[in-house]
C-alpha cells in the first residue's frame, strides 16, 4: 500500500484557497427570516454563513432550514418570515477551519459540508473554503504531480 504524507506533496494552506469574507454573501443573527431568504434567493446560494454584529461567525442558514421552519401542518405560515430571526433557525454546530490549516484538513471537513467557514483565533469570520475549490486543486495536482509519477 502506498502511503502519501500530505505535506510531502506541498499542498496549499486554507489561506491560499479560501474565498475572502468581502466576497462571501452572509446574513446576521438578528435578521428576520424574510431578509435571509431574500439574500439566499438573490445570490442563488443554498446556504450562507451567519455572523453577529461584531463579525464573529455564529452558524449557517439555508433555504431548506427557513422553508422547513415556515411550513405548518397543512400550509406555509408566511407570518413566520417576519416574526422569526435567523438565530432561531440556523445551524450552530458546524465545523470551522483556520487560515493555517492545510488543504487536506479542509478536504476531510468538506466531505460532509458544501463549504467550511474560516475564522481567526477570536472567532471572527475570514472567509469560506468550498468543495469546488478543493476539487479544482485536486484536479490540478493530479495533472501536475500524480499523473507524472
Ligand atoms: O453564484 C454562483 N456562482 C458560481 N460561479 N457558482 C455557483 C453559484 N451558485 C452556485 N454555484 C455552483 C458552485 O459550484 O453550485 C454549487 C453549489 O452551490 P450551493 O452551495 O448549493 O449554493 C457551488 O459549489 P461551491 O462553489 O463548491 O460552493 C459550495 C457552497 O458554498 C454553495 C454555497 O452554499 C456556498 N458558497 C459558495 N460561494 C459563496 C457561498 N456562500 C456565500 N457567498 C459565496 N460567495
TrEMBL record:
Keywords assigned by UniProt, alphabetized: CBS domain
Gene3D superfamilies: CBS-domain
Stored Pfam families: CBS (PF00571)
The keyword Metal-binding is annotated on this UniProt entry: no
PROSITE patterns named in the record: CBS (PS51371)
Xref: InterPro entries: CBS_CbpB (IPR048125), CBS_dom (IPR000644), CBS_dom_sf (IPR046342), Diverse_CBS-Domain (IPR051257)
Record's protein name: Cyclic-di-AMP-binding protein CbpB
Entry-linked SUPFAM superfamilies: CBS-domain pair
UniProt domain CBS: residue ranges: 18-78, 90-145
NCBIfam families per the UniProt record, alphabetical: CBS_CbpB (NF041630)
Species assigned in the record: Halobacillus campisalis
Amino acid at each position: 500500500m502506498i502511503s502519501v504524507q500530505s505535506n510531502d506533496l506541498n499542498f496549499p494552506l486554507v489561506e491560499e484557497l479560501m474565498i475572502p469574507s468581502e466576497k462571501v454573501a452572509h446574513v446576521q443573527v438578528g435578521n428576520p427570516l424574510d431578509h435571509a431568504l431574500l439574500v439566499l434567493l438573490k445570490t442563488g446560494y443554498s446556504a450562507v454563513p451567519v455572523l453577529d454584529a461584531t463579525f464573529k461567525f455564529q452558524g449557517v442558514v439555508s433555504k431548506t432550514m427557513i422553508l422547513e421552519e415556515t411550513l405548518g401542518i397543512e400550509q406555509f405560515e408566511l407570518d413566520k418570515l417576519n416574526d422569526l430571526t435567523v438565530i432561531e433557525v440556523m445551524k450552530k454546530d458546524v465545523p470551522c477551519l483556520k487560515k493555517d490549516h492545510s488543504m487536506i484538513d479542509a478536504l476531510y471537513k468538506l466531505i460532509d459540508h458544501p463549504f467550511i467557514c474560516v475564522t481567526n483565533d477570536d472567532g471572527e469570520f475570514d472567509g469560506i473554503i468550498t468543495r469546488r475549490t478543493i476539487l479544482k486543486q485536486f484536479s490540478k495536482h493530479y495533472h501536475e504531480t500524480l499523473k507524472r509519477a
